[in-house]
Amino acid sequence: MLAIVSAVLFFIAFLINAADISTNDTFRSTNVMLLGLAVLALHLAGIGSGWSRGGRRR
Questions:
Q1: Which residue spans traverse the membrane (predicted)?
Q2: Residue 41: pLDDT over 60
Q3: What pLDDT score does 38 carry?
Q4: In 3-state terms, what secondary structure has residue 55?
Q5: Cβ atoms of residues 48 and 2 within 8 Å
Q6: What local confidence, expressed as pLDDT, does residue 37 receive?
Q7: Range of 28's domain?
Q8: Whole-structure pTM value
Q9: Residues near 47 by beta carbon (within 8 Å), at least 6 away in sequence
Q10: 35 within domain boundaries
């Protein structure tokens, strides 16, 4: 799920950069891209991958 959020953030950053849309300093393409990288890092770390079962399976 976090990988999809990351891809959407990267796409928004690309659109802001490609269309040369002037936004305020909070939503610049670099900041949106860094948010996408942070979400991607959380995905790769295993956060948000779903519920894990309690206990060990044998």
A1: 34-52
A2: yes
A3: 92
A4: coil
A5: yes
A6: 93
A7: 20-49
A8: 0.71
A9: 2
A10: yes
